[in-house]
Amino acid sequence: MSVFFTRKKACFAAGCKRMVPSRRLMCKEHWLLVPHSMRVEIYAGLDLWQSGRSPKTYLEAIQRARAFVAEAEAKLARK
Ligand SMILES: [Zn+2]
């Protein structure tokens, strides 16, 4: 019998408790709020980090995306 084990973590968006696969940054709902240009930055930063460079670019990119998502949600809530 084989056991399927998926590592999961909480969505990176502020206040979101949804669990996502560990290779994903955010749940689908929040990731869809992240603009394309920021996704590109995140992937580029991740590439740098994985190729042995500093994680700084990646960490800054995900913080920007997190702030952007929080702002987008606040705007939606005001409507
Ligand atoms: Zn989420």
How do the helices and strands line up, and which of them pair or pack?
Layout: E1 8-10, E2 19-21, H1 28-31, H2 36-50, H3 56-78
Antiparallel strand pairs: 1-2
Helix pairs in contact: 2-3
Description:
A two-stranded antiparallel ribbon has the order 1-2. It has one domain. The longest helix is centred in the last third of the chain and has 23 residues, at 56-78. With 79 residues, it is mainly alpha-helical. The relative contact order is 0.15. It has helices at 28-31, 36-50, 56-78; strands spanning 8-10, 19-21. A hairpin with an 8-residue loop joins β1 and β2 (19-21). Helix content is 53%, strand content 8%. It is built from three helices and two strands. Residues 11, 13, 16, 18, 26-27, 29-30 line the site of zinc ion.
Summarize this structure as a short list of keywords or feature phrases.
79 residues; mainly alpha; two-stranded antiparallel ribbon; 2 strands; 53% helix; binds zinc ion
**How many domains comprise the coordinates?**
1
Q: Unreliable runs, pLDDT <50, ≥5 residues?
A: none
Radius of gyration (CA) equals 14 Å
Report the span from N to C terminus.
51 Å
- Reading the helices and strands in chain order gives EEHHH
**What is the number of helical segments per DSSP (H or I, 4+ residues)?**
3
Which range best describes the helical content: under 10%, 10-25%, 25-40%, 40-55%, 55-70% or over 70%? 40-55%
**Biggest sheet architecture:** 2 strands, antiparallel
What would you call the structural class?
Answer: mainly alpha
Mean pLDDT: 91
**Broad shape:** globular
Biggest sheet strand order reads 1-2
Report the sheet-strand fraction: 5-15%
| Number of E-state strands | 2
Cofactors, ions, other ligands: zinc ion
